[in-house]
Prior knowledge:
Helices cover 55% and strands 1% of the residues. By secondary structure, the protein is mostly helical. The protein has a two-stranded antiparallel sheet with strand order 1-2. A hairpin with a 3-residue loop joins strand 1 and strand 2. Helix 5 packs across helix 7 (133-141), helix 6 crosses helix 7 (133-141) and helix 8 crosses helix 15. It starts with a strand and ends with a helix.
Amino acid sequence: MTVGTVDGDRLRPLPVRPRPKAGETTDSYVRRLARANHLKPSYLRGYLVGPPDYGQGKRPRADRLAAVTGRQQDVLERALVDLVRQERPEPIKPKRHVTTSADKPALFAAIRRDAEQEGSTVRSLADRHRVSPYMIRQALASPTPPPRKQRPAIAGHAKGRVGPAIDIILDEHAARHAGQVPTVRLVWERLLDEHDADVSYGTVHRYMSNHPLKNPGSMTSHPRSASGDPLTESQRTLHVGVFKHYQGLVTAVRREPARHGLDGTFATTTAFILGLDAGTSGSMLTGFREWLVVRLDRDNNLTWPALVRHLAPSGWIHPLTPRADTEAVITLHRLLAEFFDAREQSDSLARIFRDYQSWRTTQT
């Protein structure tokens, strides 16, 4: 099934044209329209955006949607809440001037000079230089600008809503394409077509730009409040750094298994992980088997590679089929990432064995 044009610019109406619901979003209606006509939502959405780029996260055009649905454009604009972009009102006050770190020394010098020569108030100096009164007080207190505060990354609601689905798409693509990372557009289209997700292209782009599979150095830790003991804090920093190093090695293998002499199968990946663990005298995977047993809630007599295969979506399959092998590799990397995140905490190992012992006492 395809959509096309008739007589040059005239669009051809779709065979099945469901009615839009009042208050529905445009993306939701486009997905229903695509499903009813056996089309991929990403394809129909790009077609409704129109030339020259046909998509890339832009808004579908109201006139093209009206043409393919056979409905009046004003009717669609009233029913779909976001079909027409709302014009933002002009701000009453002028925007505040943004000062970069490189410009601050000259700005502080000018503020101090004006204050000494004219004796102006903080408010008048702020209005003249178009900065906040807080920055005026900083300049009057010291000629040296303070360092800019590091703000934590903002995690929106979409991260928790579509983040797991994006992780699955990235892991599957990396396992099937020798560690290559898919494009943002490919991930965004798969979310629309396979997961029926209502997510913008920009959200997917921001999530992937900080993903460990694309940037192994972007893996974040979970900081705690300072204990006040320099030795304890230095030991905790070393502890977290070690597991970040392990996670970076495992991520590198997931991205490019051939560069590390692997073929990407579960057997060779498991052998590599066992080698890493042996090189650390078993400290890298200490508690991993017990952590998996509690997660699986059975099979305490198995090794961790067997437990990982039981936790894969297809369950235990022997011998491994190509699909089951890929699923096992994806599951292994996902479980290792979660285990390393848990081990970054200073009391994680004691908690893992405590949970394991509690689990054993409940068994017959």
